[in-house]
Amino acid sequence: MAITLVNPSGLPKIDVYRQVSIASGTKLVFIAGQVAWDADGTTVGEGDLAAQVEQCYLNIGTALAEVGGSFDDVAKLTVHVVDWTPDKMPALLEGISRAAVKLGVTPTPPATLLGVAALDVPDHLVEIEATAVLN
Questions:
Q1: Contact in structure between 49 and 95 (CB atoms under 8 Å)
Q2: What is the side-by-side order of every strand in the sheet holding 74-82?
Q3: Per residue in 98-108, pLDDT tens?
Q4: Are 3 and 108 in contact (CB under 8 A)?
Q5: Quick one: pLDDT band at residue 129, thresholds 50, 70, 90?
Q6: From CA 60, how far away is CA 56, in angstroms rounded?
Q7: Euclidean distance between CA atoms 112 and 80, whole angstroms
Q8: In this structure, which long-range contacts are made by residues 42-51, counting pairs with CB atoms below 8 Å and at least 24 apart in sequence?
Q9: Is 41 left (phi over 0), alpha (psi -120 to 50) or beta?
């Protein structure tokens, strides 16, 4: 595995992700922002943030598998949530947890969470992009 996830002493320990990702691989993989589309382009979980987060993670897993990687190779995530407010955190975490179980991964790599006004399609509540490092 090309990625080691760390929570350094002196920084807060956050359960849903690690603060630092150490990459030792040789191939960078940049995955475009994934939305809650299935393979046919149909939105999964319309109006359900947790379901959409889960689908985004699963889509990232699919993209990584195509290039010989897995979610364990993810060095960094950027999460864009429409009209973000802190009360949406439980749904976000639920979606991450459900996807982590399906993908067989834990913990989540470092992530940045951004609130945005809108995404490409009005039904999309979240978009997640990933950077991975493969050997």
A1: yes
A2: 27-34, 126-134, 74-82, 111-116
A3: 999 999 987 68
A4: no
A5: very high
A6: 6
A7: 8
A8: 43/121, 43/123, 43/124, 46/123, 47/123, 47/125, 48/91, 48/125, 49/81, 49/88, 49/91, 49/92, 49/95, 49/125, 49/126, 50/91, 50/92, 50/94, 50/95, 50/98, 51/95
A9: left
- pLDDT tens for 4-45 read 989 899 998 887 788 898 989 899 999 999 999 999 999 999
Amino acid at 86: P
Residue 110 per-residue DSSP state: P
Residue spans of beta strands (DSSP E) within 58-125 = 74-82, 111-116
Amino acid at 53: V
Hey, what are 92's tokens? 């976000």
